[in-house]
């Protein structure tokens, strides 16, 4: 197994791949770049090769949606996370907020934001098929599986 720290569009591999994993990136790609990614990955995968990708959000939320990401206690500190999803133009804004607390006092607070493109499943299926990839059953609740056709 090899991890390539570059864009799939910039890969130059010596041979074909059995598996491609694209987690936490596909929904951030503009549609034109996303469709180019499918073509590159289909060209890199052997026939029957697998692609794992995270489930893109299918629609823009009408109202902001907030959900906790859970908390974990490690030593004396407690780590908290919060995700807020909201509409921004034709995309979905994901605002993450992270807190590190000790004895009820905030030690660190960090934030990061991403803009995601909504992609309904039927459109994803069409995009993948146009590149020679077939969307299969979900691998998990959050991860989808596609396979390169013969």
Q: In short, what is this structure?
A:
Helices cover 16% and strands 47% of the residues. With 150 residues, the chain is an alpha+beta fold. The protein has a 4-stranded mixed beta sheet with strand order 1-2-8-7, with helices on one face. A 4-stranded antiparallel beta sheet has the order 3-4-5-6, with no helix packed on it.
Q: Could you outline the blueprint of secondary structure elements for this entry?
A:
Blueprint: E1 17-22, H1 31-44, E2 45-54, E3 65-74, E4 77-88, E5 91-102, E6 105-116, H2 121-130, E7 133-135, E8 143-148
Parallel strand pairs: 1-2
Antiparallel strand pairs: 2-8, 3-4, 4-5, 5-6, 7-8
Features:
16% helix, alpha+beta, 150 residues, four-stranded antiparallel β-sheet, 8 strands, 2 helices, single chain
Structural write-up:
A hairpin with a 2-residue loop joins strand 4 and strand 5 (91-102). The mean pLDDT is 92. The two termini are 23 Å apart. This protein is of the alpha+beta class and 150 residues long. The chain has helices spanning 31-44, 121-130, and strands spanning 17-22, 45-54, 65-74, 77-88, 91-102, 105-116, 133-135, 143-148. It is globular. A 4-stranded mixed β-sheet has the order 1-2-8-7, covered by helices on one side.
Ranges where pLDDT stays below 50 over 5 or more residues in a row are none
Rounded to an integer in angstroms, the radius of gyration calculated over CA atoms is 18 Å
Amino- and carboxy-terminal Cα gap: 23 Å
Task: Count the DSSP helices.
Answer: 2
Q: Kindly state the mean pLDDT as a whole number?
A: 92
- Secondary structure: helix percent: 10-25%
Placed side by side, the strands forming the largest sheet appear as 1-2-8-7
Strand-residue fraction? over 45%
Judging from the principal axes of the Cα atoms, what is the shape? globular
Structural class of the helices, strands and pairings? alpha+beta
Q: What pattern of helices and strands is seen along the backbone?
A: EHEEEEEHEE
The main sheet comes to:
4 strands, mixed
- How many beta-strand segments? 8
């Amino acid at each position: 197994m090899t991890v390539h720290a570059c864009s799939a569009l910039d890969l130059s591999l010596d041979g074909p791949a059995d598996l491609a994993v694209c987690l936490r990136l596909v929904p951030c790609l503009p549609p034109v770049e996303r469709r180019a990614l499918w073509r590159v990955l289909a060209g890199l995968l052997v026939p029957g090769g697998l692609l794992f990708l995270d489930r893109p959000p299918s629609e823009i939320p009408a109202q902001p949606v907030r959900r906790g990401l859970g908390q974990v206690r490690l030593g004396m500190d407690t780590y908290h996370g919060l995700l807020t999803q909201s509409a921004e133009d034709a995309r979905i804004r994901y605002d993450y907020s992270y807190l590190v607390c000790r004895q009820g006092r905030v030690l660190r607070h960090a934030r990061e934001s991403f803009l995601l493109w909504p992609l309904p499943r039927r459109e994803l299926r069409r995009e993948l098929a146009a590149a020679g990839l077939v969307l299969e059953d979900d691998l998990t609740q959050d991860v989808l599986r596609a396979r390169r056709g013969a």
